Task: inverse folding
């Protein structure tokens, strides 16, 4: 993974004030979303350079809107019941290089410049717990 | 992507009868799952060879259990309200090479041998609808 220093990618002083952020998601995007019972879609996050799958998070319309308009990965925390900008406390920012919606509108794929560890455990990816696949042995 | 002919990977005649499948997910795995309001976790599917993210689907405990014990990707369809084995109608099978659970138990990552197109539209990946990321221009 290519590591990009925060100094290169971080917002300039005052940059937050200069970004025009409207309150709502583009209706052309919103109408394509197929949300779960909590109003959320899944966000799959991969490393822009290595292609590794880093984590999965959740987005409501506002989180997706903020992500697309600020370029900073922003999610909805199901446990804390609030939005969070990745890296806001850890410094492990995610700068979004591209985003795509899937065919049935229930998932977004983000390609990000990941600063530091993607996982709150300090691991590079959140998918660290291997599960046994018995079927592949017998085939 | 390396294409694997179905003849190489497909089940032998009668193989379904010879596979011992218990009814329930290993409780050590089940206790780690953090399910949504519908009892589902997200399944991120990537190509075992290219690493490309192919699709996102949903799993209840039984779908995960069947996937791990048969090596055939099996999901829960939220729209059709039933389990489906990927490729059962399309022939576009997914043979699971590895599986991993994420740190908070709400997502599974599968690495699969994908036969044919992963997406029902015929595309190699379901993530074909690019979304504009305005923030990255200004940064």
Result:
């Amino acid at each position: 993974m290519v590591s990009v220093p925060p100094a290169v990618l971080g917002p300039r002083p005052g940059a937050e004030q200069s970004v025009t952020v409207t309150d709502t998601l583009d209706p052309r995007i919103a109408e394509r979303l197929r949300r779960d019972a909590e109003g959320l879609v899944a966000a799959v996050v991969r490393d822009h350079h290595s292609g590794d799958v880093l984590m999965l998070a959740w987005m409501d319309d506002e989180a997706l809107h903020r992500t697309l308009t600020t370029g900073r990965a922003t999610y909805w925390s199901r446990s804390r019941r609030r939005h969070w900008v990745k890296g806001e406390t850890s410094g492990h920012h995610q700068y979004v290089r591209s985003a795509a919606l899937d065919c049935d509108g229930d998932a977004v794929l983000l390609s990000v410049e990941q600063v530091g560890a993607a996982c709150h455990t300090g691991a590079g990816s959140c998918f660290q717990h291997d599960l046994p696949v018995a079927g592949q042995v017998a085939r």
